[in-house]
Amino acid sequence: xxxxxxxxxxxxxxxxxxxxxxxxxxxxxxxxxxxxxxxxxxxxxxxxxxxxxxxxxxxxxxxxxxxxxxxxxxxxxxxxxxxxxxxxxxxxxxxxxxxxxxxxxxxxxxxxxxxxxxxxxxxxxxxxxxxxxxxxxxxxxxxxxxxxxxxxxxxxxxxxxxxxxxxxxxxxxxxxxxxxxxxxxxxxxxxxxxxxxxxxxxxxxxxxxxxxxxxxxxxxxxxxxxxxxxxxxxxxxxxxxxxxxxxxxxxxxxxxxxxxxxxxx
Length: 265
Hints:
The chain is an alpha/beta fold. The protein has two domains: 33-156, Response regulator (Rossmann fold), CATH 3.40.50; 188-262, Winged helix-like DNA-binding domain superfamily/Winged helix DNA-binding domain (Arc Repressor Mutant, subunit A, Orthogonal Bundle). The chain is 38% helix and 20% strand. The chain is built from eight helices and twelve strands. It has helices at 41-52, 64-76, 95-104, 118-127, 139-156, 191-202, 210-217, 224-242, and strands at 33-37, 57-61, 82-88, 109-113, 131-134, 165-168, 171-174, 179-182, 185-187, 207-209, 252-255, 259-262. The longest helix is centred in the C-terminal third of the chain and has 19 residues, at 224-242.
């Protein structure tokens, strides 16, 4: 679903609140892919068929984390490229991760909603979206508005940045913003907890000793007895916040007498 529903609710009068841009028909390649973050599969299939007539393939995902993984795979591919990302705001709580998504994936991000909110509109555009609009009954008008926003974004030639996001399973951390998300839910971590998680995510599959963890995170002289307890306590808190009670070893496993290891699974 891109800016419309198959079974349409009561909609506001069609309004697209980004600046009016004339569509440059030659600017958009017709062999691209877009990603839609939404729950409504029927609505997605309807609009996917309309985009396919223009040579553009659609992929639907449920979460921001899945979107980043798909977008990264597309950008690494030599046979396809990513045209834009659409977020159906009725289905997704996107605002906490929006700036991370914009920072990590340098493509236009468009927000669609059936409940236009002026404050959210301004916040979305200031946080990383290039377009925020309410649904419109006319599919062609919706699509042309999307293409206009894409053209406007591409003409701005935003500078690409190095990757600042690490993802493992349902866990995502932003290195630049020092934020952590589990299944798209923001998790509050202390400085030590975040740095421990970052260390493990950068070294998945490797056994990290107590000494390595302590020196990297705390940056102080290692003393086996007292410092090992500090490491254990930090990892215990981290496991509980990231995985939950009863599943601690599914993410960070204890290697008896040595240290810890984050699994690849």
